[in-house]
Amino acid sequence: METLLNEEDVQTALGEVRRFARGAVSSNVERPEHPLPRHSLEALVSVATEAGFIPDASDEPTGLWVDLNDPLGPTLSARTLETLASVNPGIAWACHVRAMPVWLAGRLNRPEALGERETVVPLHGCYGLGRAALPRYLAGAELAVDDRAMLKDWLMPAQKDARRVVHAPAGFDSVLSPYFDGDSVRWIRQPIGALDPLPVGPTLGLDEVDAVALASSDAGIPLGPENPEEARNVFAEALAIQSLALVAVGLGCLRHARDLAREQAKARKQGGRSIAHHPAVQSLIGSADSAVAVVDALLDRMSDGPLRGSRVGEMFAIRADAHPLLCRGATDALQVFGGSGYMQDVGMEKALRDSQQLRLMGGTPGDLARFVAEWERVR
Amino acid sequence: MTPQSHLDGFLSAEHPLSPRGLFANLPAAIRPVVTPKLATVWEQDTAALPRALAHARRRYRGFAERELRDRSLAADLAPHPKPGEVLPSLAALLKTAGREGMLTDLLPRPLGSASLGSYRYPLVWTQALRSEELARVCGGQMLLLSAHSLGVIPIVFAGDLSAIRRFVVPAYRQTMAGDPHLFAYAITEPSAGSDAEEGHGASVSQPNVVAKRVSGGWSLQGRKIFISGGDIAKSITVFASLESEGIESWTCFLVTNDMPGFEVVRNELKMGMRASAASELAFHDVFVPDDHVIGSPRQGWAINRATLNASRYAVAGMAVGLAQGATEAAIDFACRTRLAGKSLMDFQEVQLQIANMMTETAAIRGMLWQAARKAYVARQDRSSMCKFQCTDEAVRVVEMALELMGNHGTLHESGVEKIYRDARLTQIFEGTNQINRLAVIEDQQEHFLARIERN
Predict the structure, then answer these.
(1) What is the pLDDT of residue B1?
(2) Which sequence spans correspond to the domains of chain B?
(3) Does A327 contact B399 at a Cβ distance shorter than 8 Å?
């Protein structure tokens, strides 16, 4: 029988995450201008896994996305990511990337889905969010021929050079890919050799995680689910988890940037006094403060109660506005620093790049807004 | 495969309801008035320029495509060189740019490379066209080439013909011969960022670089930071306060990099515009002879402000170019990417986004050209309006391009993530956009005071 978390459990667990973030993580990322060596990332992830923050393939995993049926489970996972991201968003995202395959294998009740080494779950297709076809499918509406073609091509593109871009841990050997079989979104376990992974070099943000571009292939072992309703729920839940993760990491990132901007405003003098007294600077910091407060409330809303696929529309609606707010806050926080904000050793430019990267992953605000319009129309 | 006759949601040009066909049937007298020629926005805009500037614009574009395009992504990824060093590919670019007159166009031929025809129009307009076309292809290389001009402008604005003859003309000759002699402009100090760019802050600021009177000249002591191109410049226009005085005593000194006591301390690790370094410069009792004072002692603040009033047009031009580059990259992506059997360009949401990007870019270009075409006197209010509006809007356009490309836009190879990093600097340098907003008010304050008095 599942044990229900209580508020005290959550606070205790978050306290441990905080100690890990401010200790081991923080000491590894003191110089934002130097990317974290991959071996250091691997070591941190190992420590986080041993500490129970990231689930592993054991019979009784603990950590991110494990207790999602518990009313406080989504809160614990989201705030764990936010806490880690407030020290380093890339490391927080790397933890999420490790946790997703474990959640999916458990959700599908297919423990063999996990590879011998690392496994990756690419959720977004080759471009966008499957336009209006995805909300229709997830809402259980009737699909037209064009919708089926869209979902099929979105998740497994036919265009020869179309590739899905994913974040992947070093040494990953398999991919759990969603595909549309003409009726439902189901999952397939694909060996990495079938997908011709290409390193894509640096990306706008999240320097700590590597991105690869995957070719399209239908080779692999089907994982189900067979039941169409269940298939719909699993995919919707996966998208909802990803939304929660993106907003949580974005919020942690902005908290850090806002705090740095506050310190800078206190310390820096221009015009003969601390810049904290200049209305121009107050407006910039106020913008970051306001974004933190609003997105914090939105994250509470997103993680309130057990996670259900039926809430994916709400999750997307919140993301559509949360990310532009987070980016606005990050760019305003950077502006407080003037020229030094543009320099890598200060850390503000990284916060802005990370915020922008998160805005563009898993559906952009425009994709999300159009999803919500169709979702609300058909459900 | 049959060529596509029209985008989804539109009619082909041959359709009976297409205006293009219908206009052809109107009376011959009215036909030329209502039937536009097929032309891209760039062609339309270039055709609207005076002949000399249209020619310059085409030349800048040709140079940028030929010399900057292929170097752009590699120069961005390369590790920052040590102070004084320059990547071999960028060294070659500087030589070519010098020979082709891209580094010497502040003076007319034969002293420099500007055509006499271009002097019929404000210099800032030509400079804005140049920075737009270069930035459209690569923000970093544009800055590498443009920071040099910024270093020369104070000498021109000092109205010191002797200094132009002694310092600029020989450097230009050397540059046009393929041996670039670069200049840089040094105002920012560790404790004076915005204070070096607006009067109220300057009036209470504690100067860092101080010039002490010594026999036959001045001894400079202190540090300047974030100096674009300061690492490879042979000549630097350095603004320093006189001993025991404030910024009101600022004097412009021409410092050469071989003067004893001059040191390039380090190059910053920047977010973008990485083909051009931002350097910290130290002056350890650098002796500067009297004949290296540009203008007269205590004229530096005026020269600085006049320089900024001119250079802010060029920064606005950079922003327009970066927005244009992002728009074109997004269009290219939309035309080559297919989803469910259709080009992305067929999707209405993509069409709307591209129309927005094209229009916002056209709007800031229109604002800039409108102001620059009359800027025989570079007014602070107009140049600052252009600077903050164009740069803020350009960043929004680049964000739209990123959004249109989704996670593909985040890849370095897309080019747009680089444009975003490059564009973000334009909101900061040449005065933050907050300082530029206040500059508009400063220039108009007499009018506001008069209205307050009336009330």
Answers:
(1) 66
(2) 1-38, 42-180, 184-301, 307-454
(3) yes
Name B254's bridge partners: B237
Please give the angle made by the CA atoms of A280, A283 and A286, to the nearest 5 degrees.
150
**Chain A residue at shortest CA distance from B432:** A338
- Say yes or no: A270 contacts chain B, CB-CB below 8 A: yes
**CATH number, span B307-454:** 1.20.140.10
For chain A, the helix, strand and coil percentages under 3-state DSSP, each to the nearest 5 = 60, 10, 30
Average pLDDT, chain B: 94
Rg (CA), chain A: 21
User: Is the ipTM above a cut-off of 0.85?
Assistant: yes
Chain A residues whose CB is inside 8 A of the B201 CB are 270-272
Kindly give, in sequence order, each residue whose CB lies less than 8 Å from that of residue A222, ignoring residues fewer than 6 positions away: A186, A187, A188
Q: How far is B446 from chain A (nearest CA, A)?
A: 21
- Answer whether B201 sits within 8 Å of A272, measured CB to CB: yes
> Of B194, B344, B399, which is closest to A270 when you measure between CB atoms?
B194
Q: Do A342 and B271 touch (CB under 8 A)?
A: yes
Secondary structure of residue A376 in the 3-state scheme: helix
CA distance from start to end of chain B: 73
CB pairs under 8 A between A and B: 148
Which among A159, A334, A345 has CB closest to B338?
A: A159
Q: Please tell us whether the domain made up of B42-180 is placed in CATH 1.10.540.10.
A: yes
For A129, the closest chain B residue by CA position comes to: B406
Phi, psi for B293 (deg, rounded to 5) = -80, 125
Name, in order, each residue with C-beta under 8 angstroms of A212's C-beta and a sequence gap of 6 or more: A165, A166, A168, A197, A198, A199, A200
> Shortest Cα distance from B220 to chain A (angstroms)?
23
Option in A157, A165, A331 nearest B408 (CB): A165
Q: Which CATH architecture has domain B184-301?
A: Beta Barrel (2.40)
pLDDT tens-digit map of A178-223: 999 999 999 999 999 999 999 999 999 999 999 999 998 989 999 9
DSSP strand E in B75-186: where? 183-186
From A218's Cα to the closest Cα of chain B, the distance in A is 17
Complete domains list, chain A, with CATH: 7-112 (1.10.540), 133-228 (no CATH), 231-263+279-378 (1.20.140.10)
Q: Is A143 on the interface with B (CB under 8 A)?
A: no
pLDDT (tens digit per residue) in B86-124: 999 999 999 999 999 999 999 999 999 998 888 899 999
Helix, strand, or coil (residue A31)? coil
